[in-house]
Structures are given as structure tokens and as C-alpha cells.
Amino acid sequence: MTLALGSQLRIEIMELRIRLELLGARAFDEVCRPSVRGRQSRAKHRLLFLLDAVSDDESVEAYKLLRLGAYVMDQSSNILHGRSGLVDLPRVIVEEWRSIVERLEVFAPVSQPEEEASGALRSTDDIDR
């Protein structure tokens, strides 16, 4: 059984979205050391905590990249929730988004929450909205 191209792209977009959320959660955890680690709420804002790992010389470029990451989060949310007219998103856009996520992952803190290291995602039951 094969998936339609549109479905395959949505799955790829979901994967990018999850990677961005985990990046934001991990960066927040490293900087703030909360009692409950790995939360993914307010992930777009938590991406800003990646700046903590960046030198002053790289901060302007890193901030621009973070803004692109926030844009990808917004647009991916719109697509995944059906709020966008981009039903058949061109592959080149998904590849550009993937490049942005991979570049952001370079700034990611080294340590990982236990749940992520084991390959499991946290339940959404305890996420504050």
C-alpha cells in the first residue's frame, strides 16, 4: 500500500514540527532546569532558549534562523490543522523547512530528556496549554 503524495508530505511536515517542538523543550530544560522536563507547550517561544548555546558572534545569524524556525512552526501548524490553502505543498518547501530544522539542531543542547533518548515522545496529557 502506498500513501498519496499529499499524505507523505504531511507526515514529513509533522516530523519536522515534532523535531522543532523537541528542540524548544530541550533548550528550555537546559537553561531553566524545570521540575518537569520535556514539556512541549509554547514550543515556538522556547526555541529562543537555543540562543543560550550561541556565541555573541553568532547570535544575530542564530536569531534569524530561530525566526525561520518559528515561521516553519506556524506554517506547519496551519497545514496540519487544515487552515492553509497549501494542500499540495511543493516538495522544495518541505526540503527548505528540513534544512532550517537541521541547522537549528546544530545549536541544540547536548543532553537529552530520558523519554527522547529512548525514542518515545511524551504524552500530551500533562502539557499546559
Can you describe what's shown?
- The protein has 5 helices and no strands.
- By secondary structure, it is an all-alpha fold.
- The chain is globular, with a radius of gyration of 15 Å.
Key traits:
single chain, 129 residues, mainly alpha, 57% helix, globular, disordered C terminus
Strand content: under 5%
How many strand units? 0
Tell me roughly what share of residues is in helical segments. Answer: 55-70%
Number of helices in the DSSP assignment? 5
Quaternary structure of the protein: single chain
The end-to-end distance, rounded to whole angstroms, is 37 Å
Summarize the structure.
With 129 residues, the protein is mostly helical.
Q: What's the helix and strand layout?
A:
Elements lengths: L4 H28 L10 H4 L12 H22 L10 H15 L8 H4 L12
